[in-house]
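Sequence, please.
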């Protein structure tokens, strides 16, 4: 799975994209509201791990994670 952190500007908030190995978009959510999106794709139990990675990740960089 791949994680991309996208920086928002002005009134547009920052977002996170989760993509599978074929780079298909699985989830797209605001950094400050991940719960509903992660529950929807079945990763609610791994939200702490995913958010920990996102906090340390620079904007615009694609990071591969293993779940």
């Amino acid at each position: 799975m791949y994680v991309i952190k996208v920086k928002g500007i002005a009134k547009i908030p920052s977002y996170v994209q989760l993509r599978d190995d074929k780079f298909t978009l699985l989830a797209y959510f605001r950094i400050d509201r991940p719960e509903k999106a992660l529950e929807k794709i079945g990763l609610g139990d791994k939200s702490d791990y995913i958010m920990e990675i996102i906090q340390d990740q620079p904007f615009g960089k694609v990071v591969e994670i293993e779940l």
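Residues 50 and 61 are 15 Å apart (CA to CA).
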